[in-house]
């Protein structure tokens, strides 16, 4: 393996990570401020966070924060007093969302406790007419051969990852058709044989709404076709990266499915029953919102993934955590970078940040010739990578 490149920071003006810290985070604060009639105290706290993100340094959590000790273990003391731009990008992003929740009173006893600042955007997406169209397509899918249905559901879950509300705040426009492959790596032939009928499928979810719905449809397919005996859906314990799924979002998505006509409602009912009888479990582990790579999985999660038949890791951020948030040469083997993961693992991800591995040299050359480096971050390409 080549030398390990350094962890990505946000300190290079003009780079994608710098843009996220300098532009996307302030835009998210403004969006949240507009979404609720926050009282003056919350508005002041949001203004202070905006100021800190742009000009300030990382400040500690309040002494009373329930998770102060956890964040200390995750590196808070080391980073306190440093610029948001000079610490690992993954760390600053995660801590930004933690501070944002503090500013809106999410963890503080009072009227705003537990109110998801991103819920209006998530619900709008779930209620969008596009969701109706996607759900209606399920009726036709029922009549298709099993292999075709399985591929469609896998691809639905994969491309659902484009539905990321934080990404849309700064995406530069629709996909270009320049003849490059949409799928830059596709190991799906190695994925299905891992699902042998018994055992547990773990799915580390990413976004709510129009990504979570197809994730749930995929889980339903796996359970209904008895490709696994049980499934566990890993979501975030609190609102994160704008649209990341929480337990409340799972319930919203299931309600949406159950209220839809046709095959979607059947699927919603089956998943509801599966949750109720334990064949489907929800997990919202604190590590899901940790600013750390999966190489540092805590023992309980490590044991769960070790025992699973397959763990499906959804989305861009989880991919960064899986392979390490570093500018790997794109041809670095995926199998090597995920050797630390305790069991078979599949990544389903659209490309929305610089990190990528496991490409063949020709694919990388074609993408770069056609698009420069834009293919890495535009969200118009995707990959399915598997380590058995
Ligand atoms: O994980 P997701 O939802 O697929 O993408 C998250 C994302 O939009 O946020 C990060 C920048 O903040 C990037 O890694 C990525 O573009």
Distance between the termini: 19 Å
Q: How much beta, percentage-wise?
A: 5-15%
- Per CATH, which architecture of the largest domain? 3-Layer(aba) Sandwich
Pick out the low-confidence regions: 165-176
Roughly what is the average pLDDT, rounded to an integer? 93
Order of helices and strands: HHHHHHHHHEHEHEHHEHEHHEHE
- Helices, by number, come to 17
- At the fold tier of CATH, the topology name of the largest domain is Rossmann fold
Hetero compounds: 1-O-phosphono-beta-D-fructofuranose
Kindly report the name of the CATH homologous superfamily of the largest domain.
Uncharacterised protein PF01937, DUF89, domain 3
Q: Provide the spatial order of strands within the biggest beta sheet.
A: 1-7-6-5-2-3-4
The tally of strands reads 7
Largest sheet data? 7 strands, mixed
Number of domains: 2
The value of Rg in angstroms is: 20 Å
Helix content: 40-55%
* Bulk shape: globular
Task: Summarize the structure in words.
46% of the residues lie in helices and 9% in strands. It has helices at residues 16-35, 40-55, 68-73, 76-79, 89-103, 119-126, 129-141, 146-160, 165-168, 188-191, 212-224, 247-259, 263-277, 299-307, 316-323, 334-337, 361-371, and strands spanning 183-186, 200-204, 230-234, 280-283, 310-314, 345-350, 382-387. Strands 1-7-6-5-2-3-4 form a seven-stranded mixed sheet, with helices on both faces. It is globular and about 55 Å long. The site of 1-O-phosphono-beta-D-fructofuranose has 15 residues, from helix 9 and helix 15.
